[in-house]
Amino acid sequence: MNDQNITQDKLVKQKSLPPKKVNGVSIDNLPDLLTVGEVADLLRVSKLTIKRWGKRGKLPAIRINARGDRRYRKEAVLWVLGIQSD
């Protein structure tokens, strides 16, 4: 068996794996930036808790637009969950 066949076998195995899920949500399909509500649902905490974590530096927020809406990086949320992104 040559190296090309081994690589192709790995790709086939990777594609056949079920998507990773956390609390019923597939983390493979999450956007790069998440809203307060999306993060709260994913972590099963209140929106206020997410905002507090942002103020304390546990889960830093990115402020967007003139209103200052909060967005959270997917990698940071996965880190809080103890999951390393691929």
Give an overview in words.
The chain is built from 4 helices and 5 strands, in the order αβββααββα. It is of the alpha+beta class and 86 residues long. It has a single domain (24-86), classed as Multidrug-efflux Transporter Regulator, Chain: A, Domain 2. The strands form 2 sheets. The chain has a 3-stranded antiparallel sheet. The chain has a two-stranded antiparallel sheet with strand order 1-2. Strand 4 and strand 5 (69-73) form a beta hairpin. Helix 2 crosses helix 3. The radius of gyration is 17 Å and the shape is globular. The protein starts with a helix and ends in a 5-residue tail after the last helix. 9% of the residues are buried.
